[in-house]
Each structure stands twice: as structure tokens, then as C-alpha cells.
Write a structure and sequence with these properties.
By secondary structure, the protein is α/β, with parallel strands linked by helices. The protein contains 15 helices and 10 strands.
């Protein structure tokens, strides 16, 4: 079960491994939108993304015997980097399955952290299913990027920090891939701040979970290339994130690639932060929805910064 209490337990468990990230007021974005805009600076996390929270919570929940056998995961980059970082602290061997064509920056980071990259096919979901198969054959724990209660609880610790850091909080904008981040945040915040609006944010080119939620079932959704590569890819048929996202998300916003680029440029120019495409999705959705939240206290979660230099140059 994904519960607020599990999230509080995760917050205490992972504290020695993760960084408590600031939530900063953005004067520039507040003046531009007419909202009181806060940015959750999760791109300052040790591995450059929020994924460390879930990875650390899952690894710390394993037995000594399970850790000794090593773990397997699947990731386009950020989750794999996070698992490798946390595993290195605990001396746990890691194999990371990923699709072909993942940016070399992320592959290099995984190798630098002691992980073993394994490339399989051209689709993230297929690489993930292969990783699960191999983990079962080898008797190793598979650490899902999102489809795991301990991982979701770990991601939800961002909600714990937001509740502690902000006295007034009306809405939180979160980029959505498999749904682990937003499901975790929503589960906690809806318990302690039930009036907070949880806004799911998707690139128009890859609205996989959005289309599944609309249809009321999980199915294959066609995708196009997107700057938000961290949120791209299919959703597992039994995804634990589906039910809480159905129940707890208040609004859904889709943004274009141009809107994502504009948001990323704006954060760089006004705040001097380099963010990756998924973080740009949350900011772009906030900008697109600003009129509905005028005068309210809103947060955009800057979920990561791991963007290759050549992708950054595409913004201009």
C-alpha cells in the first residue's frame, strides 16, 4: 500500500543518503504569472534528480542477503544513476537495463558510479520487462523506476518537505512519466493538506499515463520524441501508480515542445538554473495555467538537471 505513513517512514530512513532540497520563491516567475511561485529545487539533489529518494528507500528496505546478491533496475538514466549512487554507499552491485540511444552523459554517469549498463531494444518498457525477467532468473531484486511501493514512498518525501517548508500551499505542478513522483507527493499532501491541488504535467509528444487515465485502463500509447526524455516510455500493465493518480490528481496539463523549451530558457535566464526537459514540463504547465491560479501559492517541482550539452543548445 502507498500511504502517508509509509512516506514519513521513508523520510526518516533516507535522510543520511539524500539532500533536503530548498523550496525557493521565484520573484521573476511570480511577477510574470500573477501567482506566488515557488520552485522545489530537486535538481540540486546529489544525483541531479529526485530519483535518489525512491532508490535509497528501496535499497535500505532490503535485507543484507538481498543486497549481497546485487540488484537489477531499468532506466533511461536518472533512476539508474540514483540506484547506482545509493548502492555504492551500501556496497551493492547493480546492473542497469536501458534502451538503445540513451544520452551518453547518463550512461557515463552510471558507469562512473560502479553500475553495469545493459542495452536492450529501442523501447524503455521492453528494456524494463527484460530486466524483470533477468532478475527473476538470477534471484535478484528488481528495482522499478516507479512501480514499487517503497520507491513511490521515497519519491513522496518531496511532499513531506513541501509541507514543512511552506505554510501556504495551493497547488503543486509535477511532470509525469510512470507516475511514481506525483503519486508519492499526492498521497502525502492530500493527507496533510487535502485542499492542495495536484496538477499532472505531460509533454504533448508523450502523454502515456494521461491517455491511460483518460481511458480508465493501461494500454500502449504512441509517442513522439520529446525534450522530456525522462518521462518518456510506456507504463506497466499492473502499475501501482495508476489508482492513486486516478484518485488524487486534480488537473492535467499537456504542453508542447516549444512551451517546454520556453520554460527551460526562462528558468535559465531568470533563475540561473539549468534544468532538464521534465522539469521544464512542470514550469511550462504552470505558465500555461497561471490565469486559473492567479494570487495563489503554487509550486513547480524542478525534478532534474541531467541534460546533455547538445540538448541544451537546442533551446536556442
Amino acid at each position: 500500500m502507498i500511504t502517508a505513513q509509509a512516506t514519513l517512514t521513508a523520510a526518516a530512513r533516507i535522510q543520511p543518503v539524500i539532500r533536503t532540497t530548498p523550496t525557493d520563491y521565484s520573484r521573476a516567475l511570480s511577477e510574470l504569472t500573477g501567482c506566488h511561485v515557488w520552485l522545489k529545487l530537486e535538481h540540486l539533489q546529489h544525483t541531479g534528480s529526485f530519483k535518489l529518494r525512491g532508490a535509497a528507500n528501496k535499497l535500505l528496505s532490503l535485507s543484507a542477503e538481498e543486497r549481497a546478491r546485487g540488484v537489477i533496475t531499468a532506466s533511461n538514466g536518472n533512476h539508474g544513476i540514483a540506484v547506482c549512487y545509493a548502492a555504492r554507499q551500501l556496497g551493492v552491485p547493480v546492473r542497469v537495463f536501458m534502451r538503445n540511444g540513451v544520452p551518453e552523459l547518463r550512461v557515463a554517469l552510471i558507469r562512473a558510479l560502479g553500475g553495469e549498463p545493459v542495452f536492450f531494444g529501442d523501447d524503455s518498457l521492453k528494456a524494463e520487462m527484460q530486466a524483470r525477467t533477468v532478475a527473476g532468473q538470477r534471484g535478484q531484486v528488481f528495482i522499478s523506476p516507479y512501480n514499487d511501493a517503497e520507491v513511490i514512498a521515497g519519491q513522496g518525501t518531496i511532499g513531506v518537505e513541501l509541507a514543512e517548508q511552506l505554510e501556504t500551499l495551493d497547488a503543486v505542478f509535477v511532470a509525469v512519466g510512470g507516475g511514481g513522483l506525483i503519486a508519492g507527493i499526492a498521497t502525502y499532501l492530500k493527507e496533510v493538506r487535502p485542499k492542495v491541488k495536484i496538477v499532472g504535467c505531460w509533454p504533448e509528444n508523450s502523454p502515456v499515463l494521461y491517455e491511460c487515465l483518460k481511458a480508465g485502463r493501461i494500454f500502449d500509447v504512441p509517442e513522439l520524441p520529446t525534450l522530456s526524455d525522462s518521462t518518456a516510455g510506456g507504463v506497466e500493465p499492473d502499475a501501482l501508480t495508476f489508482e492513486p493518480c486516478q484518485r488524487l490528481l486534480d488537473e492535467h496539463v499537456l504542453v508542447s515542445e516549444d512551451e517546454i523549451k520556453h520554460a527551460m530558457r526562462l528558468v535559465l535566464e531568470k533563475e540561473r538554473w539549468v534544468i532538464e526537459g521534465a522539469a521544464g514540463v512542470a514550469v511550462a504547465a504552470l505558465l500555461k495555467s497561471a490565469e486559473r491560479f492567479r494570487g495563489q501559492h503554487v509550486v513547480a517541482v524542478l525534478c532534474g538537471r541531467n541534460i546533455a550539452a547538445e540538448r541544451l543548445r537546442e533551446l536556442w
